[in-house]
Amino acid sequence: MASLEEIREERIKKLETLKERGLNPYPAESHRTHSVAQFLKDFDDIKEATITGRIMNLRSFGGSIFADLEDGSGKVQAYLKKDDLGDKFNLFEENIDIGDFIEASGAPFTTKKGESSVLVSDWKILTKSLRPLPEKWHGLQDHEARFRQRYLDLLLNKEERELFTKKALFWKETREFMEKEGFLEVETPTLEITTGGAEARPFQTHHNDFDLDVYLRISVGELWQKRLMAAGFEKTFEIGRIYRNEGSSPEHLQEFTNMEFYWAYADYENAMELTRRLYIHLAEKVFGTTKFETRGHTFDLKDDWRKVDYVDEIEKETGLNILEATEIDLEKKLRELGVKYEGNTKERMIDSLWKHVRKEISGPAFLINHPKLVSPLAKENPDKPGTVERFQILLAGSEVGNGYSELNNPLEQKARFDLQRELINAGDKEAMMPDDEFVEMLEHGMPPTCGFGFGERLFAFMVDKPVRETQLFPLMKPRD
Q1: pTM reported for the whole predicted model
Q2: What tens digit of pLDDT does each residue of 8-41 get?
Q3: How buried is 421 (Cβ within 10 angstroms: 0-12 exposed, 13-18 middle, 19+ buried)?
């Protein structure tokens, strides 16, 4: 079997032969008249057509060649006869390979086996490939190679291509739903002096013109969209990329897409009803069902969405009341349960304890009444002191959406930020950075507002894949 380098050298020789015969192996123009799908759709009405595509299979039978051509719309067979093409048949047979892109002109033709084909009267090289494609039936088996050479993985795997078509529809339907509900799409900064809107470790970079260290955002403009509420906008949303300099897992990546909306004169109860309808809408429009099996759980989004109390659920499962527990109590319980956790602050330990408890909840459910300590931007719940008006959507043992009645009391917000500053000084790398200019905005006045956000983790849950599998080009370490 020839080595990759030998195959490459042989193909370069073929490229030179094509050039010697007056054919440009990499022309800029193409004279396509029909996509493959259009050709097959109008097959009976076409007299002559020019189609283009990559050759995915070649079969030679003496004086004839069958080539399977694929473009972005489908696959069709091109039939070349030596009697029709003469010397150009020989040029094709000797110098064209699987993986090359060609332009084929000719008439519709049905083979003896009944396959719709194009009877080629002329052809033109569009791109000469120098490396062979992976073997068709096995494709890329190595997990790292699949991501590093994603273009080959997608080329050979129709299901993978359909996945990303579905993902595009997922965000399209999200956008259309929000617009129909009267929300205005906005764009907010991705470079920030202080990160806000979430608890996560940010990426840091340097702004040369201002000679200033800045951060890539960790939320889709939460603190900026709230400024828009103060500016007189009542319903806004944004779909965009966010960046979190944290570990990877089947549910977490460092770069991903999120959607966040903000709604003036509404509270978290209003947001719960809106998001329930949004999730059902996405399920029906993108997947044609509201029933899913994922990560060992089954759920139906049309079932009743029960409410799970954060504090009560942890106490029910562990016997510990987290509002009364000390750091020592929390640490002891985490060790007793064998839960690994990072950081020794009370906030991080409570969060770790909840993540242990949530695993058995299939949903759909709303997680409510979070401790104020883990929710520095949410309004306190007047009916349950120490907790806030926040909700998270629970599916398959995890959170796939987060919203709350936004805190708009500037004095309390400043006090919450001061506490976050203490956590940062204590070494908590995920604590929220204080934003004094945001507090200044609140002092001018922001109306009662609710906000909500979800990301592509929801899509990953619905297709039952790790979130990395649902990214076209996940970040890869350079080859050694």
Answers
A1: 0.89
A2: 999 999 999 999 999 999 999 999 999 999 999 9
A3: middle
